[in-house]
Specification:
Radius of gyration: 22 Å
CATH topology of the largest domain: Rossmann fold
CATH class of the largest domain: Alpha Beta
CATH architecture of the largest domain: 3-Layer(aba) Sandwich
Number of helices: 15
Largest sheet: 7 strands, parallel
CATH superfamily of the largest domain: Glycogen Phosphorylase B
Number of domains: 2
Strand content: 15-25%
Order of helices and strands: EHEHEHHEHEHEHEEHEHEHEHEHEEHHH
C-alpha cells in the first residue's frame, strides 16, 4: 500500500512545547504516513526536523503576522494587517498543498489551524487539528474563543494534548481524542541522584505565563531559611517576552538573590539540567494546556512541584477531571508530587521547603511518578492515537471528496 501523504503545518520555527511534541510524534509514527512539515517561517525547528530526516518546506508568512502573540488578537489594527497578509498566503498555501499532493492536512498551532483550514478547503483536503492551546478566555482574548470553537467544528478530527484542553473545545467527547505529548525512550532515566545541596529549577521558555517571577519570589523565602539552596532558571525568552526576561534579572537584584539564582539560558540537553535539580518547579500563574516539562521531569525521576490548574494537575493526579486548587499558602501532596495554587509564591516556597526537609518522601513520590510517566507518556502511545484520528479523518472525508470530484 502506498503511504499517505500528510502535510503538517506550523506557523513558527521556534522550538516551543508544541514543536517539540511534533518532532517526537513524527519520529514515532507508523511508516504508512509520509509527512512533509510546512513552516510559515524559517528557523531552528527547520534545522532540527531536517536532522531527523523529516521533509520540510518553508512558505513565509509576513513577519508582522507570523510574530503576533495570541494576546494581540484583540487589537483591531493587528487584525486588519493580519487579514491582508493572510488572504494571499492562504492561496499560496493551497497551491503548495496541491503541489505536494497532500491527502491530509494537520495543523499544529492556532495560526496554522486558522490558515490551514482555509487552504485545505481550497485544496480539497480533510484537515485535523492537533490542539496544544486552551480555547478559553483565561488564555486567549475573549472574542477569539467562540470563533476558534466554531473552527474546531469544521475539522475532520481534533487531537487535544490533555483532557483539560479537550473540555474547552466544547465538542462532543467522541469528536476529540486525547493524546498526551509523547516522550522518547531516552527521556527516561533508571534513577535520579539528588544533588548534595538543594537545587530548585525551572525549565522552559521565559514568559510571564510560565511563572519565573513567582519562582523568584518563592526563592527569596526559601533562601532566607536555607543558605545552601540554589535556584536555576533554564530557558530563554521567545516571541515578545524579552522585556519580561529583563524584569526578572532586575527582580533578582532587588531580592538580593544574585549569588543564588543562575540564569542558564537555552539548553541543548534539558535532561541533564533536570538531573541537577532537587525538584522541578512548574510555577505557571495561569492554567497550562499540558505541562510537558512536568512529564519530562517525572520520566527522569525528579520530584515535581506544580500549580494546580489545567493539564499540570491532571499529570500529577492521574485524574482527567479538574482538581480544586489548594488555598493560598497551602500545598496539596499527591502520590506523584506537590500542587499549589496558581500565582502563589508562599505555596511554592512551602513545597520547596518540604523537599528539603523530607528528601526520602520526595524521592519516593518521584519514583512513583516515573512509573506513571512510562505508562502514560510514551511516544508510541501518542503516535497510535494520532494515527487513528488521521485514519478516521481520511475515511470520513473520502465520500465527500468523491462526490465533489464527480461534480
Amino acid at each position: 500500500m502506498a503511504p499517505v501523504r500528510v502535510a503538517v503545518l506550523g506557523h513558527t520555527a521556534e522550538t516551543g512545547g508544541a514543536e517539540i511534541a511534533l518532532m517526537r510524534l513524527l519520529e514515532a509514527l507508523d511508516p504508512r504516513w509520509q509527512v512533509t512539515v510546512i513552516l510559515f517561517s524559517p528557523g531552528e525547528l527547520e534545522s532540527q526536523l531536517r536532522q531527523r530526516g523529516i521533509a520540510v518546506r518553508v512558505l513565509p508568512l509576513a513577519q508582522r503576522t507570523a510574530s503576533r502573540g495570541r494576546a494581540q488578537l484583540k487589537d483591531p489594527r493587528t487584525l486588519l494587517l493580519s487579514g491582508r497578509d493572510s488572504w494571499g498566503f492562504v492561496g499560496r498555501l493551497a497551491q503548495l498543498l496541491r503541489a505536494e499532493q497532500a491527502e491530509l492536512v494537520v495543523a499544529n498551532t492556532l495560526k496554522a489551524a486558522v490558515l490551514g483550514s482555509l487552504a485545505a478547503r481550497r485544496a480539497r483536503c480533510p484537515w485535523v487539528w492537533h490542539l496544544h492551546d486552551r480555547i478559553s478566555a483565561d488564555y486567549l482574548p475573549a472574542a477569539a474563543v467562540p470563533a476558534l470553537r466554531l473552527l474546531a467544528r469544521t475539522a475532520h478530527g481534533v487531537v487535544a494534548n490533555s483532557h483539560a484542553t479537550a473540555r474547552l473545545v466544547r465538542l462532543p467527547a467522541e469528536r476529540v481524542a486525547v493524546a498526551y505529548p509523547g516522550l522518547p525512550e531516552e527521556s527516561f532515566a533508571a534513577a535520579h541522584q539528588a544533588p548534595p545541596t538543594p537545587v530548585f529549577g525551572m525549565l522552559g521558555r521565559i514568559s510571564s505565563t510560565k511563572g519565573q517571577r513567582e519562582f523568584l519570589q518563592a526563592a527569596f523565602t526559601v533562601a532566607a531559611a536555607d543558605p545552601s539552596a540554589a535556584f536555576h532558571i533554564v530557558g530563554q525568552a521567545l516571541f515578545n517576552d524579552h522585556e519580561y526576561a529583563k524584569q526578572l534579572e532586575d527582580l533578582t537584584s532587588q531580592l538580593d538573590l544574585a549569588g543564588r539564582v543562575r540564569f542558564a539560558g537555552w539548553s541543548a540537553r534539558p535532561e541533564a539540567d533536570l538531573d541537577r535539580f532537587s525538584a522541578l518547579v512548574h510555577a505557571s500563574p495561569v492554567p497550562e494546556p499540558f505541562g510537558q516539562v512536568i512529564a519530562e521531569a517525572m520520566a527522569r525521576g525528579v520530584p515535581v512541584i506544580a500549580t494546580a490548574a489545567g493539564g499540570a494537575a491532571e499529570i500529577l493526579t492521574e485524574a482527567p477531571d479538574p482538581v480544586p486548587a489548594p488555598s493560598p499558602g497551602e500545598v496539596l501532596r499527591t502520590p506523584l508530587g506537590q500542587l499549589v495554587a496558581p500565582g502563589d509564591p508562599r505555596g511554592l516556597a512551602s513545597a520547596m521547603r518540604w523537599v528539603i526537609d523530607n528528601p526520602g518522601d520526595a524521592e519516593s513520590a518521584a519514583q512513583r511518578a516515573s512509573a506513571s510517566a512510562r505508562r502514560r507518556f510514551g511516544a508510541a502511545s501518542a503516535a497510535a492515537v494520532c494515527g487513528e484520528v488521521w485514519s478516521q479523518a481520511l475515511a470520513a472525508a473520502s465520500p465527500r471528496r468523491r462526490r465533489g470530484d464527480a461534480g
